[in-house]
Amino acid sequence: MPYSSYFVNGDLIFAVHPYKQIKLMADICLPDAPRQSWNNAEEERKNSNPTTFCELLGLEELFSLEVWRASVAELVGTAVLVFALDTIVISSFESKTSSPNLVMSILIAIIVAILLIAANPISGGHINPVITLSAALVGIISLSRAAIYILAQCAGAILGALALKAVVNSTIEDTFSLGGCTLTVIAPGPNGPIVVGIGMAQGLWLEILCTFVFLWASIWMAFDHRQAQALGRVIVLSIVGIVVGLLVFISTTVTAAKGYAGAGMNPARCLGAALVRGGHLWYGHWVFWVGPTIACVAFYLYTKIIPRQHYHAEGYKHDFFNVVKSLFT
């Protein structure tokens, strides 16, 4: 029966759906504290089980002041990251040390860990479209929040590159391309300028492989609340920084190619320097976006294949599979 009558002292006063009838009875019969618990449980039920396409996309977050305010941490964090990383790249090679790649990787690991720890309590500490996109695909955040974060990260990367351009001289800017992401550079040769670096196919594979390892070996721990709670926030984010530093060292060492700046693993960082410096930084720039995107999708598919009991993520309500599924139901 879709609707039922509700009697008080023998008088018919309600004709409501059974679910609403139960809630009305709770409102009337329960004291204030249990009634509040009922309301909290009802609110949690609505929030944890989005049913419509708009809810799955989290479209309401596009108009949430809290989300936009949180994105400021992503903007500032990415700006500082770009300024610091690109400065590290320039100074490591400018110092003429015997192992600039090693020095650069260690410093990158330290600065990434520090900035992630600083931004984590406010926005979740992404400061990288790779982390944001993978979090959205897994369902930890909505696609709407991811779009806001990525927009803020790109804006922050541009500001960081502009800040670096303002403090370095033109010679260093030309020599090191503002520390941006490069596949090749034009270098002086015995018979005139020559192009040195790696090909686009090689660069694409390095982006895919390094980004997937980055997600699998470190971001996995941050997404799995069981591991995150056991290890602690500082340790997990420090591991993320260490993995980034190792992958930068590996990617620059395994190719042994001058002109290749190493795996970007952060499209926003690559975009900032390319927009501010321009020129050859646009050559193969798509590699630094397509490669990480493919890696994020591969990581998401991996999380769907393995047994669920071995992957305890914080949330899932915005899982990309559920978003696609809602289009056909």
UniProtKB/TrEMBL annotation:
One of its GO terms (cellular component) is membrane. Keywords: Membrane, Transmembrane, Transmembrane helix, Transport. The chain crosses the membrane at residues 67-90, 102-119, 150-168, 204-223, 235-261, 281-302. Pfam families: MIP. InterPro entries: Aquaporin-like, MIP. It is found in: Membrane. PANTHER family: AQUAPORIN AQPAE.A-LIKE, AQUAPORIN-LIKE. This is Uncharacterized protein.
